[in-house]
Amino acid sequence: MRVLSKDLRLQDVTLMYLTTLATLVVILVASYQAAGSSRPQLPYHVPLDPGGQLQLSWNISYERQELYLELWAREPRHGLLLGMSDRGELRDADLVLLWDDGTKSYFGDAWSDSQGLVSVDEQQDYQLIDAQRTSEGFFLLFKRPFSTCDPRDYIIEEGTVHLLYAILDKPIQSPQKLNLSLLNPGVQRVLLLRPETPSPPLPRDIRTLDVLAPDITIPAQETTYWCHIYQLPPDLPKNHIVMYEAAVTPGNEAIVHHMEVFECSPNMDVIPQYSGSCDSKMKPRKLNFCRHVLAAWALGAEPFYYPADAGLPFGGEGSSRFLRLEVHYHNPLLVSGRRDSSGIRLHYTPNLRKYDAGIMELGLVYTPVMAIPPQQSNFLLTGYCTAKCTQTALPPGGIFIFASQLHTHLAGRAVRTALVRGGREVEVVQEDKHFSTHYQIIRILKKMVNVLPGDVLVTRCRYNTEDRSKPTVGGFGIMEEMCVNYVHYYPRTQLELCKSHVDPGYLQKFFSLISRFQGGDECSCARPDVVEQFSSLRWDAFSGQVLNSLYSTSPISMHCNQSTAELFPVSRPGLILISSNGNYC
C-alpha cells in the first residue's frame, strides 16, 4: 500500500493526503509529554474488533475543543474506515477514510446517506497529523473538533459514542464506490470525552482483592454472560474500596466486553457456589439476591477512583460475605478453547477514610404500571426523587454525587438525571443522548453535584419500540424496561432508593377511558392484572398520546426506602407538575 503522495486533488475535491506534518507532530508530542517516543502516546485505548486487528487510541483537549485520535491496524491492506453514528447505524454516519486506488493513497472526511452510500464531505474537518508503518503495525494519527457546524458531521459530546470500523480489502477509485452495507463494518461503543480530574494517590497501606472468573473456557458462541460466586474471607472487618480496575486475561482484551461485581443481600446467610451461564436454568435462584453494584467496567474504561476523602465500605457488620461476578463475553468469531480468568481487581484500605460512600437508586420503580406502547419512536418515562424524601433523608449539608451508572433495557435510547431546586432545573447530573444497554459503566462526573435537603432529582428515559407489536411493561426481564440511575455519592445515608411510579388508581382511569373509547364494556368481573390490561388495548396514536399525558400529569406513588428496605415516612402519592417553562412544582 502506498502511503505518500504529492498529488492534492481528487475529483475536484481538495483532500489531505498522507503527508507527514512535522510541526503539528512536534506540538502534539510536547503537549502530551511523549518525549523520547517517535509517536505521541495517547492515554485512552479501546480494541475495535474481536480479532485484535484494530485499536483506537485518543486524547482530549478541552481547551481547543478537539479530539486527537490514532488508529492502529496490524495490517491496513487497502485502507481503513472509522465512523460515528447515532446508534451504530450504517446510514447518516460521519466517516473518516484512508483508501488507495492501487497506485496512490488518500485520506479524507466522508459521510454516508440514508442507503449507506458514501460521499466525500465538501467540508473537510478531520485533519491528518501523521502516518507511520512500524514493526508493530500501521498508525494513523488525526484530529477533529468536538463540533464542526457541518450538518453531515457527528457532534462529539458526553455520553456513549457508537463507532463504526472496517478494513478495506481491495483498492477503490473513490469513496463513492463504497456501500457500507456491503462493507459490513463492525460497531464498538465508547466514552470519548472523559473528565480532566486527576486521580487521587492511593494510600501506602493499599491491599488488593481479585474477583476473577475461575479459569473458564469461553463458550464458542457470540454472546455469553458468565456468573461466578466469590466468597469473602470469614470475619472480614470493614474496609474502604478506594479504586478498582479491570484484570483482563492477556489475549482476551477484544472478547471481554464488560464486567460487574455485585454484593449479595446481607440477609442471605448462604449463597450456593456457582460458576456458569447467568442464563442457565441450573443457576441457583438465590443469585437473584445479588444486585447491589460494587464495581462495573466496560471496554475502554479507565480505573475507577473514589474521591480522596471517601471510600466504598465492604466487610464488617451489615455486609455480605458473598459477591457475584458477571462477565459478558462478546465472541462473534466463535473462537473455541480460549481460557479466561478475567475479573475486577478491588483496591482497598483498612484505614477508613472520612466518609463512607454510598449508592442510591433514582428513577422508576420496577413495576408494570410504567409501560411503553408499541410502535413508539420517542416515548418518555420519568421518575422522581421528591423534595419530601430528600428533606427527610439527607443531612443538612446534603450529599455529593461524584459518579453515576445509567441503566435501561433494550428499548432505552437516552437517559438524563437533573437536579431541581426551588422549582427550577439548576444542574444536569448525568446525560447520555446515545445510551445503549450494551455499554453500561460507572461514569465519573466532570464535577460533583451537591444535593441538598428539599431538592428534587428527576430521571427521564427515552424509548424506541418501533420494532415491537405489543406494549413493553416495566420489570426485570430484558424485554421489559427500566429507567434507573445508580448514583455514587458521599457521605452515605440510610436512603438507598428514591424512585416513583404513576398512581395505580389514575392508571385504572386511563384503562376505563380507552376501553370505552374503543367500544369496550365495563366489566364487573375480577379485574385482570396490569400486564393483561395493557396487552388488551388496541394501540394507536391516540391511546399512546393519552398514556403519555397521564404519565406527565397524574399523581405519583413515591418510594423513599432505607437501606433496611423500610420506607421513610414520606412514601405516599403526590402530584408533580412540569410547567411549559421547565419549572417543577
UniProtKB/TrEMBL annotation:
Pathway info: Catecholamine biosynthesis; (R)-noradrenaline biosynthesis; (R)-noradrenaline from dopamine: step 1/1
Localization of this protein: Cytoplasmic vesicle, Secretory vesicle, Chromaffin granule lumen; Cytoplasmic vesicle, Secretory vesicle, Chromaffin granule membrane
Pfam families: Cu2_monoox_C, Cu2_monooxygen, DOMON
Cofactor(s) named in the record: Cu(2+)
InterPro entries: Cu2_ascorb_mOase-like_C, Cu2_ascorb_mOase_CS-1, Cu2_ascorb_mOase_N, Cu2_ascorb_mOase_N_sf, Cu2_monoox_C, DBH-like, DOH_DOMON, DOMON_domain
Subunit field text: Homotetramer; composed of two disulfide-linked dimers.
Membrane topology: Single-pass type II membrane protein
Species for this entry: Denticeps clupeoides
Keyword check for Transmembrane helix: yes
Homology family: Belongs to the copper type II ascorbate-dependent monooxygenase family.
GO cellular component: chromaffin granule lumen; chromaffin granule membrane; extracellular space
Entry EC number(s): 1.14.17.1
EC class of the enzyme, as a word: oxidoreductase
Chain ranges of the DOMON domain: 52-168
Function field: Catalyzes the hydroxylation of dopamine to noradrenaline (also known as norepinephrine), and is thus vital for regulation of these neurotransmitters.
Alphabetical UniProt keywords: Catecholamine biosynthesis, Copper, Cytoplasmic vesicle, Disulfide bond, Glycoprotein, Membrane, Metal-binding, Monooxygenase, Oxidoreductase, Signal-anchor, Transmembrane, Transmembrane helix, Vitamin C
UniProt-recorded name of the protein: Dopamine beta-hydroxylase
